[in-house]
Amino acid sequence: MNETPTNDVQRTTAVPPDTTMAMVVYGLYLAGFVVGFTPLIGVVIAYVYKGKGPHWLDEHYRYQIRTFWISLVYGIIAFVLSFIGIGLLLMVALAVWMIIRCVKGFKGLQEKRAPHNLETWLV
Fold this sequence. Notes:
Order of helices and strands: HHHH
Number of domains: 1
Radius of gyration: 20 Å
Largest sheet: none
Membrane topology: Multi-pass membrane protein
Transmembrane segments: 26-49, 69-100
Helix content: 55-70%
Distance between the termini: 63 Å
Pfam family, one: MamF_MmsF
Shape: elongated
Protein name: DUF4870 domain-containing protein
Keywords: Membrane, Transmembrane, Transmembrane helix
C-alpha cells in the first residue's frame, strides 16, 4: 500500500537561528586567557557573521565586536599603567569584566534574546 502525503495539513516549522558561531566567539574570547590570539579570531568571525541573522543575534555580534575593542583599549591602558603598579589591578578588573560579558552573552544566546546594556562600556 503506497500512501502519498496529503497537502491538507502542512506544518510550517520555523527553523531557529544557528547560534553556534556566536557561542564560538564567546568561547574564543574566554580562551584568550590561555592562548592570547584567539580573541582576534573571534572578532573576525563576529564581523563576518554580523548582519546574517535575526536582529537579536546580530546584536550579539555587535556586542562581541564592542567587547573586543573596549577590552583592547582597556588592556593597553592597563599595560601602560603597569609600569607604575596600578596596571596589574586594572588587568585583573579587565579579566573579570571580560568573563562577565561573555557569561552574559552565553546566557542571552541560550534565552534567544539580545544582550542587555549593549551600548555601555561597563558590564
